[in-house]
Amino acid sequence: MLSNVRIVLINTFHPGNIGAAARAMKNMGLSQLYLVNPCEFPHPEAESRAAGGNDLLLQATVVGSLADAIADCPLVIGTSARNRNLPWPMLNARQCGEQVVQEAARAPVAIVFGRERMGLHNDELRQCHFHVAIDADPAYPVLNVSAALQVICYEIWMARQAIAGGDSNPQSAVEYPDQAAMVKFYQHLEQTLKRINFILPQHEGKTMTKLQRFFNRGRPEMLELNMLRGILSAVQRAAGDDR
Questions:
Q1: Is 21 strand, coil or helix?
Q2: Where in the chain is the domain with CATH 3.40.1280.10?
């Protein structure tokens, strides 16, 4: 189950934080580390901070974009300590651990951590189904990325232990589309809405962002997504588009 849990670090500036992340993951039984455009990796400081987690550094996957890191994940959770103008479905750390463990029994799950100074960009957060924030003193609620990662990994471990101890059971098998399928759906949706002039090129506004938030919150199952794609195709045909 935990082998399906993927920790994704974006543009990590300090190599020591990559090593600290590997150590925190090793402590909590996690092994899948993805690095999106790290500033310096490999690096001796990462190896030094990893301690017993050096094997995670050796097998870490380095990719060029967040989309590459999460394309096959039906569940993506982004970490964020800031309030956004357009709020996204939120989890606390404990809820995050429970959600991750429930769904990692069936498919890859990604938890995404942003840059040390500015966290995740809005376009990256929009690629996530949920955002997770760690409860802290409102006077200073921002944690170092490696500290935040340790808290999340701990909650995942505790949720896994609860299931192993018989306190709860994984949800019944539900097939959710991965991120690549959702990206294609959003492209199809935008194309259709422009075809019927619901979205005007000169006045696009935040329509697609709000619709993406809606569908991420609702999380259609694979069969439901196929149905939605069929509806969009029917709408396009009715509008005279035979492509």
A1: helix
A2: 2-164
pLDDT recorded at residue 169: 52
Calpha distance 71→60 (Å, rounded): 17
- Return d(Cα 109, Cα 104) in angstroms, integer: 6
Tens of pLDDT, residue by residue over 171-207, are 556 899 999 999 999 999 999 999 999 999 888 889 9
- Give the CATH fold of the 179-238 domain: Helicase, Ruva Protein; domain 3 (1.10.8)
Provide CB contacts within 8 A for 167, sequence distance 6+: none
CATH topology (fold) of 2-164? Alpha/beta knot (3.40.1280)
* Tens of pLDDT, residues 47-90: 999 999 999 999 999 999 999 999 999 999 999 876 666 778 89
Q: What is the separation of C-alpha 52 from the centre of its chain, rounded to a whole number of angstroms? A: 26
Question: Cα(143)–Cα(113) distance, rounded to whole angstroms?
Answer: 11
Q: Beta-strand (E) ranges in the chain?
A: 5-10, 32-36, 61-63, 75-79, 90-91, 109-113, 130-132
Output the six-digit token pair for 192. Answer: 């259709």
